[in-house]
Amino acid sequence: MPRMRTIASILSFAFCASATTRLTGQQIPLNPFSSGAPDSGGHVLISPLTQPTLTPGVLQLMELESRFAADVAKGGGKAFAAWFTDDAVVLNNGKPPVLGRSAIAQQAVWDPATYQLTWTPQGAQMGPSNDMGYTWGHYEGKAKDNNGQPIVLTGRYMTVWKKLPGGAWKVSLEASANEAPNAGDCCALPKP
Known about the structure:
This protein is of the alpha+beta class. The chain is 30% helix and 30% strand.
C-alpha cells in the first residue's frame, strides 16, 4: 500500500505541475546546449539559458537529464540502469512495468555500438520542497535490422527525479510511449 501511495503522489505531482505550466502559459525550453534549430524529428530546440524566467530547480533538473543522456550515449544499457533508485519503476509502451533497479539492469543490456538511445529534454518542473521533480521530452532509438537497414523508434518520455538522503539525484520513475507512425508509413514497402 505505501508503494501505491508513492506512485499516486508522483503522478498527482506530475499532473498538478503540468497543469500549472499549461494554465500559466509558461513553456519550459529544451536542451541547454542546442542551437534553436530543429532536430532530426523536426522538434525545435531552444536553449533554457536564454530564458530568464527559469528557476534554479528547473535548470538543475535539465542539467541532470543532460548528464543522464550523455552517460547512456557512451555506456548504453549499463549506464542507463545506474541512474535509477533501488525501488524505481520503468513503464514502456505496451509492456509490463519493470520494478527495481536490478530488474531494470537485467533488461537494459544494449551496447551503444549496436543501439543508440538519445533524448532531448523539452521541459521540467521542480517540486516545492526541491527534492523531487520531473523532466519530459522526446527520445530516439537507432539500430539496424538483420539486413543492415536502419531502424528508428521515436517517442515521448517522462523522468521523475528524486533527491536521496546523501544529496545525490536518481531516477525514480521513467515512462515512455512511442510516437505514432507518419501517415502512410504503416503500408509502405521496405526499401531495397
